[in-house]
Design a protein that fits this description.
Two copies of one chain form a homodimer. Chain A has 151 residues and is mainly alpha-helical. Chain A has a domain of 103 residues: Orthogonal Bundle (Arc Repressor Mutant, subunit A). Chain A is 68% helix and 7% strand. The first copy, chain A, contains six helices and two strands; from the N terminus they run ααααββαα. In chain A, helix 2 crosses helix 3, helix 2 crosses helix 5 and helix 3 packs across helix 4. The longest helix of chain A is centred in the first third of the chain and has 24 residues. The N and C termini of chain A lie far apart (43 Å). At the A-B interface, helix 1, helix 2, helix 5 and helix 6 of A face helix 1, helix 2, helix 5 and helix 6 of B. Chain B binds a DNA duplex (30 and 30 nucleotides) through helix 4. Chains A, B: One of its GO terms (molecular function) is DNA-binding transcription factor activity. Chains A, B: This is MarR family winged helix-turn-helix transcriptional regulator.
Amino acid sequence: MTVHHVLELEQFLPYRLSVLSNTVSQAIAREYESRFALSITQWRVLAVLGRYDGIAAREVAQRTAMDKVAVSRAVAQLMKDGRVRRGTAEHDKRQSVLTLTEKGWKIYDEVAPLALEHERRLLAYLDADEQRWLSRILEKLWQAELQELGR
Amino acid sequence: MTVHHVLELEQFLPYRLSVLSNTVSQAIAREYESRFALSITQWRVLAVLGRYDGIAAREVAQRTAMDKVAVSRAVAQLMKDGRVRRGTAEHDKRQSVLTLTEKGWKIYDEVAPLALEHERRLLAYLDADEQRWLSRILEKLWQAELQELGR
DNA sequence: TGCAAATGGTTTCAGATGAAACTATAACGT
DNA sequence: ACGTTATAGTTTCATCTGAAACCATTTGCA
């Protein structure tokens, strides 16, 4: 008789991470989509530009962990919607200089507090200890991944 | 002068979860794809069937947090590859009865230990305390999400 | 200086994915 | 028994996404 390995999917860390993350992201995505016609990728670009206005698409990609194709597309749509403006860098004509328009800032100022509220609501399920540990653990895994990819 | 909200994307929990989860999943996906011609969705189906052989597609969907369309497609491909067999339930002819073939078991027995190894490698970045807290935190958030969706 | 390689960014193509429509069967209420 | 409603599963269509090809510009170096 053959005995097989036993793997309980529900207990499997990558699976749990994935399901949790997707559930959270999708809930947020649906709201942004319906209220602001804004996809998650677009929102990430906005969020980064709200913090670092005037950077190039390349830097947006780095700071959002998105690839350059995704950034290119998100920016194209954001420009079409008049939320982002694209210029060309003086010192390097390949590079773009991305800035938020008035309209872009307006959305940003609406969505940012909403995002923080989502985060608070999620964290509210955890007590103070758990929140601290989670933050620390994510930071560690994050660093580990960065290292991994750096090779 | 207008002061805008400040939202540091890198510190934003849903974002961190998403990036971490995607990085982990993609690393695993690439390996399964190249070594076994197996997508993550297909792997999840295999994993559940390895544990609960003979269940219906509907139950696979529940246990994998995938929607029924995704399950249907994964099963179709797994059948084409001769890894899964589909029968019809006696008591309800709508329901399928999904079982692993010899070939399916063979893959399962290869992939399962590999999956566990991936998990170990990820957890190795954390000390024992952190591992315990992570498990507990994910469990709590998981329950919270379930509740959320149940409404 | 001039040419090969690298970089920033966009486009194209092919496969993945989700929502809604659809088919078949079963359950429910009268 | 019979029509309505619900459920299991598949198919279709439109959108999303990633990989690779591509263009323009810059960098590195002989």
